[in-house]
Amino acid sequence: MSRTPALSIVVPLLNEQENVDALHAEIVSAMSAAEGGEAWEVIYVDDGSTDGTYERLQVTQASHPDLVSVVRLRRNFGQTAALAPGFDQARGGVIVTMDGDLQNDPADIPRLLEELGRGLDVVSGWRRVRHDPLLSRRLPSLAGNWLIGVVTGVALHDYGCTLKAYRREVLEQMTLYGEMHRFLPAQAHWVGARIGEIPVKHHPRTRGKSKYGLWRAYRVLLDLVTVRFLGVHGTKPLHAFGALGCIFGALGVATIGILSYLKYTTGVSFIQSPLLLLSALFVILGGQSFLLGLLAEIAVRTYYESQQKPIYIIKEMHRAGEPGPPEDDPLREPRVSGAPVGGSGRHGRWGRRD
Prior knowledge:
- With 354 residues, the chain is of the alpha/beta class.
- The chain is 44% helix and 12% strand.
- It folds into two domains: 7-233, Spore Coat Polysaccharide Biosynthesis Protein SpsA, Chain A; 237-306.
- It has helices at residues 20-33, 53-63, 79-89, 109-116, 134-152, 168-171, 184-190, 217-233, 237-266, 274-306, and strands spanning 7-13, 40-46, 68-72, 94-97, 122-126, 164-167, 195-199, 335-336, 339-340.
- The longest helix is centred in the last third of the chain and has 33 residues, at 274-306.
- The radius of gyration is 25 Å and the shape is elongated.
């Protein structure tokens, strides 16, 4: 395939040797049936597999050298870290992610792309009918999706579904850590992306062993706190710590007020009352909160200034004297400083903003 791909499909795998051949065959079948004939590629990321997954991927890559790329990590880093090199190696203007266990259906990819073509920036899959255990998978997932929606303000039915489509320029605004891959739609929303969701098929696992369990729940909760803090206070941490300091300070003043009232109405001793110690504790915690906020402000300013990282994200810019395509041109790309946003501009038919 000599053309530059408009679409990149990123698939992380861990000990899925029994599924590699069938997975690739289904992806090829689904994309061959897609209308438009746009060029595409698939990037398989072996996340430290200990079985024959990498060997099967080598065979697949050898049979489709212009279509398939294979990235092998030195050890198991986790799904989020496995997606990151796939994003880095992707050449398409649209990037689709999916699991490698055959529970996601590649036939749903054209439907995701169709939704992107209607002007969305991120389209998330919703496994409306799931074929997973109720107690260990579905119920925790329902609770987690509700909590993530409340905390982030982006209500999706299924944050845990890996089958998603992104515009390249949206992903380039974000960095992956921990279990952050499931929060990408929320992060995308915070940078101004338009988010959509469609029901997708979900198949029961027939080969291999699931890598998920309840033990991941605490990681998700901790990362949720991180995502919320970075999304709301990432450039102004003193606002968060300062508010906390004000609360503690107010509690300290209120405690002293109560103690003073009791002193002059009932004769309670300042020295013997535990309220004096409680008031001092609140005042100390308030001061420490302010100091932590100042330190965080210094760290944030150092981060942005050392990397010359802007604190804003431009969606579109039209410079004086630079002619642009007609406003009604469906292939018109946003331009920043005379260059397409995202660098590649290879959105093709799927990336149009109609």
